[in-house]
Amino acid sequence: MSTIAKAVCPLMQAAQGWFGYKPNNQEETRWRVLQAALEVFSEVGYHAATTRAICSRAQVNLASIHYHFGDKAELYREVFRLPFLRDAEKFFPLGIDNIPLQEMLQVFYESLLPLPKEADPMLHLFMRLHAREEVEPSGVLGDAMAGAIRPNHDRLEAMLCRELGLKKPDLELQRLSFSLVGLGMIYVHSGGTVEHLAPNLLHGKNARVTMVSRLVEYAVALIAFERKRRALEHKEKK
Questions:
Q1: pLDDT tens digits, residue range 116-144?
Q2: Where are the domains of the chain?
Q3: Architecture of domain 3-237
């Protein structure tokens, strides 16, 4: 039996925790379609998924996808955007003028690193979907991913500009920015590989807390190195 048969849509429940507000009853159909689409797309991929199968699982009529999303492609893009919107809700609102570097990095990696399956089963469905997209590209995402990621990306670069005394990002700062993201993305997109090669790394009550703490420490060290590298380069040019 599909999880859609439950009284409350699991994805809608997850959204309450992600975004900090309870979707109203009029939004329930939309969330049910998103839930069903997430399940079907992650199981069979974009091309094999049908709107009929999605609507059947969501227990809604076929017109619901057209009404709420337009078509299958836009529904797929919306499903892909959801976890990035969740992350942006946590990291993007932070101001960068007075918040210490370590605190901002803490929030950044907490939003990036996946929760245990029992804490957020929806997130692991998203990870499965993203892994399938890597292997079987749909060809319909376009700039949807870049648009969803941009708020956090811009905020991270603004934080680095502050730390390095720059008015705007340059190529070296962009290189550093992607490197900081890369520290955590291995656990997002290759969680299965990590679990296979290091099965105890993220298991246990405090494993995620420890990992976030280490990522913050690694990131601070990389930023300190870049600050030192720039100072040495500036000195050599004199």
A1: 665 566 777 877 887 788 788 888 887 76
A2: 3-237
A3: Orthogonal Bundle (1.10)
DSSP 8-state class, residue 202: S
Instruction: Give per-residue pLDDT as tens, 151-185.
Output: 788 889 999 999 999 999 999 999 999 999 999 98
The C-alpha atoms of residue 47 and residue 139 are separated, in whole angstroms, by 10
- Taking the C-alpha atoms of 75, 91, 170 and 183 in order, what is their torsion angle to the nearest 10 degrees? -90
- Residue ranges of the chain whose pLDDT lies below 70: 1-8, 10, 12-26, 84-96, 114-121, 144-145, 148
Tell me how far apart the alpha carbons of residues 171 and 142 are, in angstroms, rounded to a whole number: 24
State the Cα angle at 158 between 210 and 143, rounded to 5°: 90
- Which residues lie below 8 Å from residue 177, measured CB to CB, with a gap of 6+? 153, 156, 157, 160, 169
The three-state secondary structure class of 95 is coil
